Amino acid sequence: MTQVHLREGLEELPSYRQGKPAPARDIPTYKLSSNENPYPPLPSVVRRVSEAASTMHLYPDMSGRALVTRLAERYDVDADCIVLGSGSVEIASQLMRATAGAGDEVLFAWRSFEAYPTLAIAAGATPVMVPLTDSLTHDFDEMLAHITPRTRVVLICNPNNPTGTVVDADAMERFIAATPDNVLVVIDEAYQEFNRAEKSPVGIEVFRRHDNVMVAHTFSKAYGLAGMRIGYAVAPPAVADALRKVAIPFGVTSLAQEAALASLDAIDELAERVDKLVSERDRIQDALKAQGWAICDSQANFVWLPTAAYTDDVARVLDDFGIVGRVFSGEGIRISIGLPEANDVVIAACAAAYPATTPHPLSRTTAQG
Ligand SMILES: *Cc1c(COP(=O)(O)O)cnc(C)c1O
Q1: 89 lines ligand 1 (CB under 6 A)
Q2: Mean pLDDT, all residues of the chain
Q3: Ligand 1 pocket, 157 CB below 6 A?
Q4: What's this model's pTM, rounded to 2 decimal places?
């Protein structure tokens, strides 16, 4: 056993669980556990990344100037407001390290993105988790009640991972108005391109209205660049500056920057794929509702089965069909939208699993201070 002295409290830190890979089987299997884009990268993107590979002996442009300029134009914001990160998970890590330390609180709904508690604890802060409502949406009244003088950051995941639910624009606006101006409100929009809900807020517009709001976006999901690791924040300049200070130098590679630029060039082609995934999502949800499942409407590239106590039973049935979802024992199962063939199998598997469940939801975990 090593005697090395590790940081106090680290033993409480849960390790991030990657979505399970599809096992080798005698039937086709579908890995639908990580919300990846099922389409392979566009040839135009692969070409640009291959070209950039010839410069891999050089450090990347740390400021990512070409991409930052491009994003600033796209959103009509000052370039000072844009910060790149190696995935928006790194953005979330930066913002917690930049704002919260020992004794400080990071507030978010639960269940939400699994990385939030880990990143908060790694920053030395205390995660404060407020249960979702019965309809699996953010409970803004309860969240407001949990803001204390120690609260530094509030994370709002919209659409929420893993439930796919969205917040109401007016409700969020009231929440932000009631939140102290010195608390940073982060709108994590990793799935915003899949969101078709009319009353859901548009993060960038909220950012324009408030000095304490930032938005996190990623190229991993809709743009299909999960393996390249690139995301960005749009934040008030002083916050953006702080994020850059705590960032790991040269964390975003030239290849990732080039892939993002090439993807923005191909945005119409990528949008068609997103539209297909959205229509597949709606096809699955309609089929599941017709089977009797009491599911909430997901606006992301996944669906959420509120299987509660039946979760492990349902997971076994899915497994028999070769479907690998993200299983949260005792709560529910998140299944990413795949290509139509995979989605057909999801629908068949859910039909087979349904009688094992009751139509009444819902999964809840308790708040934690
Ligand atoms: C996937 C995801 C991200 C982005 O992950 P990166 O690959 O690091 O960009 C961020 N937030 C949520 C809620 C996600 O589900």
Answers
A1: yes
A2: 93
A3: yes
A4: 0.94
